[in-house]
Amino acid sequence: MDQVKGVCGVRHEPLVTYHARSILLAKAFEKIVFEHIPRAQNEEVDHLSRLATTYYDELLEGVYVDIYEIPAYEEARSLPVLEEPKDWRTPIARYLVTSQLPESVTEARKIKNRSFRFYMYDEELYKKS
Description:
The chain folds into two domains: 2-58, no CATH class; 89-127, no CATH class. The protein is mainly alpha-helical. The longest helix is centred in the first third of the chain and has 14 residues, at 13-26. Helix 4 packs across helix 5 (105-115). It is built from five helices and two strands. Helix content is 38%, strand content 6%. InterPro entries: RNaseH_sf. GO terms for molecular function: nucleic acid binding. This is RNase H type-1 domain-containing protein.
């Protein structure tokens, strides 16, 4: 509870992604309140915590347990960014996608004038015909 409120940090590594996801989801609400409920007053959580340490053959009849080996939420892993070799097409493509021009006035003018002959499709630069 204190981790979500920002009072203290998350120490257990597998919970870091869940913490980040909960903070992100909380921002989607106009108002959200986190309230600590003591275990004695929360029977469902108490049963779940006992279930985690119970042998499955000791479960009551009619109680079924599904075990998931994969996490409920997995953060996308970042990959190293590979720089494409820069050639004459790079500044034109950059201008068409982001409207970003070089600082050099003459170079910017050159790219702007040449860009009218090209278009971007599926992240590829094509020449108009």
